[in-house]
Amino acid sequence: MSAVGTYFYNIFRSLYTVVVGMKITINHLFTRSATVQYPTVKMKIPERARNRLYVNIDDCIGCDQCSMACPVDCITIDTIKSTPDVDLGLTSKNTKKRLYVPRFDIDIAKCCYCGLCVWPCPTDCIVMTDVYEFSEFDRKKLVYSFSNMTSEEIAGAQERLKKYDEEQTAKKAAAKAAAPITPPPPKPEPPAS
Amino acid sequence: MEFIQTLLANELVVSILLSLLPLVFIIAYALVVLYTEMKVAAHIQDRVAYMRTGWHGLLQPIADMLKLLQKEDIIPDKADRLLFRLAPIIAFVGTYAAYAVLPFSSIYIGSNINLGAFFLVAVGSLVVVGILMAGWASNNKWSLFGGVRSAAQMISYEIPTAIAIIIVVMITGSLNLQDVTKFQDGGIGNWVVFGGPLPWLQKLMLMPFTIITFFILFVSSIAEVNRTPFDLPEAESELVQGFNTEYSGMRFAMFYLSEYANLFTVSAVGVALFLGGWSSPFGTFMSGPVWGLFWFVAKAYVFVLVQIWVRWTVPRLRVDQLMYVSWKVLTPWLFVCLLSVGLILVL
């Protein structure tokens, strides 16, 4: 194209492109906006979204697997063994509960929402919920305690375990004193080959 | 005007009162345009803008203004204090002075001088002085860049504006904006953009040139108010708001107000020169002093809306492109228009 032709072509092209752009923007001016007015209107969150953890403490058997799976160590579990005379009941999956869980703390401020704690749980008692609004002014409030045991119950359980252990050791000592020391049975000969 | 004069019987009080009227108008209008601009911008981008302050955020401009009034007024340590303080005032005075010659209605014009259009071009340049001053006094390289760019831009775009005004003056035969408006009175067909109230053959020949002139005046008026696509002086992405980087609080508000007031001024000039000013588009229907004010403001507001629309569509030009547009496109085309209009009028 000659220089003059380019000059006129450039003018035409710039005007034309501006008109095209303005047509697009005026169309958008009259389309519905995509904004969701968040606190009043909420979007549906995906089915498998990972949000705040919840522990159904009635099902927890205190196996500590979630705590071990956690990459940021935000789950702290303390357990107390139960004595044979108490029945802690069954979980919803019909496994027998053998441990008291006096402490099941999740520091949700540390939690990275990876969901790794959910899969190892043998009783499916630790789950991800769809709650995602739980900000607090005090960081300490973000440590959630799921255990439902009162301090008296914990003390009682510890007391019973201690007594039971003492009884057991006493029993063992008594048995030891009564029975003559017998040498352990000889090891069976390895089969000749 | 005479009515108020007899009512108060004091010339000084009356002239102060009348010169304050546009200020009231500017503030009310700035609030409206602030709101419109944010809403249009948001909806063009499929957003909704502010929704919480009042019904659909109607109170937001007032809140913004109150915030700016309360803010601390910071002057940088190494700034030139006198110039720094003076700059926003000069910029605003330059803008405000232009309102003196705007014919708001058939009975209200701040100063009915014979050199109205010339006065407009002259005081319009005063804004550049304020901006350049602000850029220099801030002692900040971005501000300085903004100021210098603004000066270069204004000098380039004053020329197309002035020539466009000259073309209208050639057709109407007067520099007084009130007379220019009266010349176009009596319906949409008499507007200068459609050739003015001349014999139909002359009118038909004039029309292409007046339309081109009107379009060029529109483009150069966007450049004169430093808005996108010609917002190089304040380019927020490269110059951090350019000349007003260091400004805060009341002084920043002055710049802001002057920018929006300027936006109305250029729109009003376009309306007064080309679109019949306060005259009704339907001839005698809906015409009169009050309707005149309505038509004037409404036409200018449509103009402002188009400018907002352009702002949120077109990206910013480069500095060399800016100069190219002014010197190689707008000015030559206007010279062609000037010659042709002259010839047609002589015939």
| Number of DSSP E strands of chain B | 0
Q: Architecture of the domain at 53-152 in chain A, according to CATH? A: 2-Layer Sandwich
Rg for CA atoms of chain B: 21 Å
Q: Which structural class is indicated by helix and strand composition of chain A?
A: alpha+beta
Tally of helical segments of chain B: 12
Order of helices and strands of chain A: HEHEEEEH
Computed structural class of chain B: mainly alpha
Strands of chain A, count: 5
- Quaternary structure state of the chains depicted: heterodimer
What is the 3D form of chain A?
elongated
The poorly predicted ranges of chain B are none
Average pLDDT figure of chain B? 83
- Residue-averaged pLDDT of chain A, rounded? 84
The CATH class assignment of the domain at 53-152 in chain A is: Alpha Beta
Helix fraction of chain B?
55-70%
What is the number of domains of chain B?
2
Helix content of chain A: 25-40%
CATH topology grouping of the domain at 53-152 in chain A: Alpha-Beta Plaits
Written description of the protein model:
The complex is a heterodimer of chains A (193) and B (347). Chain A has 193 residues and is an alpha+beta fold. Chain A has three helices and five strands. Chain A starts with a helix and ends in a 15-residue tail after the last helix. Chain B has twelve helices and no strands. In chain B, helix 3 crosses helix 10 and helix 5 packs antiparallel against helix 6. The chains are: A alpha+beta (193), B mainly alpha (347). At the A-B interface, helix 1 of A face helix 2 of B.
Topology (SSEs and partners):
The complex is a heterodimer of chains A (193) and B (347).
Chain A lengths: L2 H27 L23 E3 L9 H5 L5 E7 L17 E9 L18 E3 L14 E3 L5 H28 L15
Antiparallel strand pairs in A: 1-4, 2-3, 3-5
Chain B lengths: L1 H7 L2 H34 L15 H11 L10 H18 L17 H22 L3 H32 L4 H7 L16 H25 L11 H4 L9 H26 L14 H23 L7 H28 L1
Give structural attributes:
heterodimer; A: 193 residues; alpha+beta; Alpha-Beta Plaits; three-stranded antiparallel sheet; two-stranded antiparallel ribbon; B: 347 residues; 2 domains; 12 helices; globular
